Amino acid sequence: MIAIYPGSFDPITLGHLDVISRGSKLFERVIVAVLQNPSKSPLFTMQERIDLIQQSISHISNVEVDCFDGLTVNYAKLRGASVIIRGLRVLSDFEKELQMAHTNKTLSEEIETVFLATSTEYGFLSSSVVKEIARFGGSVDHLVPKHVAIDIYKKCYAKIHPESTPTVKNPTPKIN
After folding, report:
1. Which residues are catalytic?
2. So what's the pLDDT on residue 113?
3. Closest by CA position to 95, among listed 103, 83, 105
4. 8 Å CB contact between 167 and 136
5. Cβ distance 122 to 87 under 8 Å?
6. Is the distance from CB of 116 to CB of 139 less than 8 angstroms?
7. Residue 86 pairs with which residues in a beta bridge?
8. Separation of alpha carbons 60 and 114, rounded Å
9. Hey, which residues does 117 pair with through a beta bridge?
10. Are 32 and 53 in contact (CB under 8 A)?
């Protein structure tokens, strides 16, 4: 059985990799499908995201990376997939993902959505959180694979590895 795991993966996180790894044990083949989302301004180009994901999953033999635009169910049919994998972190994810699963079912009866709850340590993690931390000079080494962290630092936020301690903008004056 072929499953697709769609998303923007901008950037791929350890939470995404947890879902990919666990999904690869449940399905014969998993296709990580990188979505071109015109409503987002990505940090990484489509090709950069594909390359970062390929480096991250190279040790998992039954996982491949591809890209698409348009409806996920149409892409799933095109690739012969019968399952869409979605990761769930918090209750609000479930509400949104359940609505999307029902919508997809109206578009294609033969495609099922399988929800995988994220591992506890990644319950807070999203690509947006990673980008926000990096924008303010924080370390993202514990949130993404090392090669992804290096590219984040190089690409836009810092020329050297940032310190994880915050800087004081307006220090309190000393009173004598």
Report:
1. 16, 40, 89, 127
2. 98
3. 103
4. no
5. no
6. no
7. 115
8. 20
9. 88
10. yes
Tokens describing residue 134: 């990096």
Query: Could you list the mean pLDDT of each consecutive 10-residue stretch along the chain, which spans 176 residues?
Result: 97 97 98 88 93 97 96 97 95 90 96 95 92 88 95 69 45 48
| pLDDT score recorded for residue 175 | 52
| Residues 30 and 4: beta-carbon distance below 8 Å | yes
Nearest-CA neighbor of 44 among 160, 126, 162, 127? Answer: 127
> How many angstroms separate the Cα of 123 from the Cα of each of 17, 120, 168?
13, 5, 30
What pLDDT is recorded for position 172?
Answer: 47
Cα(149)–Cα(162) distance, rounded to whole angstroms?
11
Query: ∠ CA(114), CA(118), CA(119), 5° rounding?
Result: 135
Tally of helices (H runs) and strands (E runs) in the chain? 6, 5
The confidence score (pLDDT) of residue 40 equals 75
Whose CA is closest to 67, among 27, 9, 127, 126? 9
Q: The tokens of 42 are what?
A: 């990505």
Distance CA(16)–CA(32), nearest Å, equals 10
Output the six-digit token pair for 12. Answer: 């791929």
What confidence score (pLDDT) does residue 166 get? 41
